[in-house]
Automatic annotation (TrEMBL):
Residues 9-153 form the Phosphoribosyltransferase domain. Gene3D superfamilies: 3.40.50.2020. GO terms for molecular function: uracil phosphoribosyltransferase activity. It comes from the Bacteria. This is Bifunctional protein PyrR. NCBIfam families: PRK05205.1-5. A motif (PRPP-binding) lies at residues 93-105. It comes from Fimbriimonas ginsengisoli Gsoil 348. Transmembrane segments: none annotated. GO terms for biological process: regulation of DNA-templated transcription. Keywords: Glycosyltransferase, Transcription, Transcription regulation, Transferase. The keyword Glycosyltransferase applies. It catalyses: UMP + diphosphate = 5-phospho-alpha-D-ribose 1-diphosphate + uracil. InterPro entries: PRTase-like, PRTase_dom, PyrR, PyrR_bifunctional.
Length: 177
C-alpha cells in the first residue's frame, strides 16, 4: 500500500489537459499519430488519442509498441506484440508511456518507432515523470512530476488491466533495528 498520487478523477482530468496541450502545440490533430509503449503506456495512449479525436473531430490513430526487441540490457527478439497499422513516415508521432524514470525504455521505443519509417518529429508524453534519468531524454508533455527516491516505485493502475485507474507511490520500506 502506498500514497495515492492520482485517483481516477485526477487521471481523467490530467489526460484531458495533456490532450489539449498536445493539440495546442501542434495546431490541431492533422498529421498526428499516437504510439503507446506496452504494457501500460498503451491504454494511456489510447485515451489520449480518443480525447484528441473527440476534441478535433479528426481521427487520431493509436498503435502499440513492444520495446522488448530494443532493450539495452536483455533484448528479447522472440516476443514482439507491436501493432502500428498506419503510416509513420512524415507523421508527428506522439510516443506515450505511463512512467519515465531512467528513460532507457524510451530510448528503446525510439529505436522501435524508427523501424516503421522516418517520422517528421517524435514528441514524448508521459503520465508520470519521476526523475533519475540515465539518458538525456525529456518528455514534451507530462501529467505530473513526482519527487522520488531512486528505490521508490510508481505504480500506475489502469482499468483495462487492473480494474481501476490510480497512480500510487510506493516508498521503499525503512526497517529500523
Ligand atoms: O524510464 P525507465 O527506467 O525505462 O522506466 C519506465 C518504464 O518502466 C515501466 O515499464 P516496466 O519495465 O516496469 O514494464 P511494464 O510497462 O510492463 O509495467 C514503465 O512502463 C516504463 O515503460
Ligand atoms: O517507479 C517506476 C519505475 C519504472 N517504471 C515504473 O512503472 N515505475
Amino acid at each position: 500500500m502506498g500514497a495515492v498520487l492520482l485517483d481516477a478523477g485526477d487521471m481523467r482530468r490530467t489526460l484531458g489537459r495533456m490532450a489539449h496541450e498536445i493539440l495546442e502545440a501542434n495546431q490541431g490533430a492533422e498529421g498526428l499519430v499516437v504510439i503507446g509503449v506496452l504494457r501500460r503506456g498503451y491504454p494511456v495512449a489510447k485515451r489520449l488519442a480518443f480525447l484528441m479525436t473527440q476534441i478535433e473531430g479528426t481521427t487520431v490513430p493509436c498503435g502499440k509498441l513492444d520495446v522488448r526487441p530494443y532493450r539495452d540490457d536483455r533484448p528479447n527478439f522472440e516476443h514482439d506484440e507491436t501493432e502500428i497499422p498506419f503510416e509513420v513516415a512524415g507523421k508527428t508521432v506522439i510516443l506515450v508511456d505511463e512512467v519515465i524514470y531512467t528513460a532507457r525504455t524510451i530510448r528503446a521505443a525510439l529505436e522501435g518507432v524508427m523501424r516503421f519509417g522516418r517520422p517528421k518529429t517524435v514528441q514524448l508524453a508521459v503520465l508520470i515523470d519521476r526523475g533519475h534519468r540515465e539518458l538525456p531524454i525529456e518528455p514534451n508533455y507530462y501529467g505530473k512530476k513526482v519527487d522520488t527516491d531512486r528505490d521508490d516505485h510508481i505504480v500506475v493502475r489502469v482499468n483495462e488491466y487492473d480494474g481501476e485507474d490510480a497512480v500510487v507511490l510506493e516508498k521503499k520500506e525503512v526497517i529500523n533495528v
